[in-house]
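Provenance

Sequences were taken from public entries as deposited. Structures were produced by running a predictor on each sequence independently, with no templates supplied. The record for Lipoprotein from Streptomyces sp. R02 is shown for reference.
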Amino acid sequence: MRNTAKITTAVLAAGALTLGLTACGADQDAASDTSGPLVVAASPVPHAEILNFVKDNLAEKAGLDLEVKEFTDYVTPNTATEDGSVGANYFQTQPYLDDFNKKNGTHIVSVVDVHLEPLGLYSHKVKKADELKSGATIAIPNDTVNEGRALQLLAANGLLTLKDGVGTSATPADITENPKKLTFKELEAAQTPRSLDDVDAAVVNGNYAIEADLKPAEDALVLEKAKDNPNSNLLAVKEGQEDDPRVKKLAKLLTSPEVKKFIEDTYAGSVLPSF
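Predicted structure for Lipoprotein:
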């Protein structure tokens, strides 16, 4: 077993309470102390797996003391980075980060893009997207950016039409044409793969698909395209911590040839290097 601490969604409410952003002095001191290990919050798959590859194979030679903490939600890693409980995080895309900062008054910034996890449509009931029946129920993530990505994916594959210009802020209210009369079940992103037995299909984030033993490159009915995709997953820190020498070392290692090969060999097209 790797020495990582798993944080479940049970801490979600507690994490949300930190949005008051009144960090204690101890947290602030920990964030500014660059002599200790760099603690990075990450989703279990593939982020923590990639970080643990770095920790086990590259960090010591680079003089980096790296500690990985696993989180299973999309809120706590940012609040923990903001209050100094962790020194960095690796789990999110730039559109999600921008939306989170805007809504919560946080000050998290990107350091480097690492990989893309294509969003996909999955089903236990049909083999092709055009086999979805009229009135089919589709589970989609309920956070602003991933919901928009999900609807854009469906639109790109002819299942619906959206208002011009809505981008990743799209919601079901922005649907202008819905020929199959699809209905939508909005769920926390981690719940979408678990809903597959209860809905006709679900749009699932790449990391949660892999955790659920789905193979995006093989199992998705439709999958996001990698070319010109703005949704790369990135290493992020609180503003002002970008020059932390530990962060710079990690950014360099995460975009190394060794990590690129690890991603390509391990995920076989389900996770794509962004560098």
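The longest strand covers residues 108-116.
DSSP finds eleven helices and 14 strands in the chain.
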